[in-house]
Amino acid sequence: MHEIGYCAGVLEAVERRAAGRPVARIGVLVGALHRISPAAFEQSFRLVADGGVAAGAGTEVLIAPVRAACAACPAEFESTEPAPTCPDCHGTEVATEGGDELVLQWVEYTVPDGGAAAREPVGPVRAMEATVAANTGLVATSGLPAFVSTPDLLRWLPAATWCPVVVDPARWRAAAEAAGQPNDRRRPIVVHAPSQRWLKGTDRIEPMLRRLDAEGVIEYRQIVDVPHASMPAFYAGADIVLDQFLLGSYGVAACEALASGRLVMGHVDEFTRAQVLDRTGAELPVHEATVESLESELRRAAADPDAFAGERSAGPAFVERVHDGRRSASALAPFLGVRA
Ligand SMILES: [Zn+2]
């Protein structure tokens, strides 16, 4: 019953939140990809919660559907099957999105003297904490080796193996070379293409970017919904790419911008930078900037682009060394029983 692993994590979040109050019932949203059975979840939760504040608590599990698009026909549909088939043409080649949610939605406390139970909603941060707790619980109970795609996750899973995200360096380099080297323009073109605004800190930097644009310090281009095929040209037309400013890590988008040879700014915390240096021998060439320091860093870069030439030119070599797939193949090879 793999629900046990999820329940252990959810229970941890519930107990922390309850702070001693007896829990009557909890609501959990679980994506279909987790293959959770609500009945098995309830049974497992009773098992792990026994003896604590949530002993005997009921569970209400809502299954979040997978959004799916058929490759063979124009059908788009939702399904609670982890591997759905197309309802129109019965094709099995189906691209899916979502369905990986795991969110503690609410906690209901027991009220003495038979009063109405008080239901307390759980905010997004708490919900993410519950997801983290559930996932680490699952890793601990699965008995399988764990791989992490970004090095910041080693903080929670120190024994895991880093399997770096992979980009094709040649594709990004080619677009950048075709566009020519940027600069000796006096007003740098600054781009930001956030996949999830709230997660990347977009709302917290955008007013400042618009102000610098109006002042004539930079030219700011925010692009949403750029098809991935157009991204190499999008980065090639920029001087500075802004990545993310809240999570303290870097992912595929930063690697693509680095591979394009553009100056990348973002917040990557010291732990994550140290992991990269320790494990690869190379400094991560993402220029450090936080929500607070980004304005002064952009002003510096606009006034003196040469001061950033080192980081800019280190990008493509770094991506080739760490993110071109070879290192990821080596990380997975022992588990798969093959040679990289
Ligand atoms: Zn179809």
List the helices and strands and how they pair.
Layout: H1 3-18, E1 23-31, H2 38-49, E2 58-64, E3 66-70, E4 76-79, E5 94-97, E6 102-109, E7 118-121, H3 124-142, E8 147-148, E9 161-162, H4 169-179, E10 189-192, H5 197-200, H6 202-215, E11 219-222, H7 231-236, E12 240-242, H8 252-259, E13 263-266, H9 270-280, E14 287-288, H10 294-303, H11 309-322, H12 326-336
Parallel strand pairs: 1-2, 8-9, 10-11, 10-12, 12-13, 13-14
Antiparallel strand pairs: 1-6, 3-4, 3-5, 6-7
Helix pairs in contact: 1-2, 1-3, 8-11
The structure holds zinc ion (ZN).
**Number of H- or I-type helical stretches:** 12
Tell me the span between the first and last alpha carbons: 34 Å
Average per-residue pLDDT, rounded, comes to 88
Tell me the Rg in angstroms: 23 Å
Classified by CATH, the class of the largest domain is Alpha Beta
CATH architecture of the largest domain: 3-Layer(aba) Sandwich
Report strand %.
Answer: 15-25%
**What's the CATH topology label of the largest domain?**
Rossmann fold
Small-molecule components bound: zinc ion
- Could you estimate the helical fraction of the residues in percent? 40-55%
The domain count comes to: 2
